[in-house]
Every structure is written in structure tokens, then in C-alpha cells.
Q: What sequence folds into this?
């Protein structure tokens, strides 16, 4: 029963939703994560804007600078 409960939670899609490397031609839904310029960004609301240019994205993990 405990394993079935864990499986039910996993099937609901809880957890980090990685959408891949940010692309200008793609739309992102709220809750998705994407990488851009070596950093990981969280999407706050549906958008196709570039991370770091407005309130649609929040920096989650800053990449190292060269």
C-alpha cells in the first residue's frame, strides 16, 4: 500500500519539471525550470521571454562565471 501511494504521487508529476535549455521559440509554463547562460531558472508564470529579463523567471541556481 505504501508503494502504491508513492507511485500515485509520482504519477501526478510533483517535483522539478526540467524543460531543458531555454529556447526563444518555446513557451514555458509556470513551475517549469530551464537553463540559460549556465544558470537554472524557475518559470513563475507562462512566458516565452528570456530568463533574467523580467518578472517571469526567478534565478534558482547561479552558474559559475568564467
A:
Amino acid at each position: 500500500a505504501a508503494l502504491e501511494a508513492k507511485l500515485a504521487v509520482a504519477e501526478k508529476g510533483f517535483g522539478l519539471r526540467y524543460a531543458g535549455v531555454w529556447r526563444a521559440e518555446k513557451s514555458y509554463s509556470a513551475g517549469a525550470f530551464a537553463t540559460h547562460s549556465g544558470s537554472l531558472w524557475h518559470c513563475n508564470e507562462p512566458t516565452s521571454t528570456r530568463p533574467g529579463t523580467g518578472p517571469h523567471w526567478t534565478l534558482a541556481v547561479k552558474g559559475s562565471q568564467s
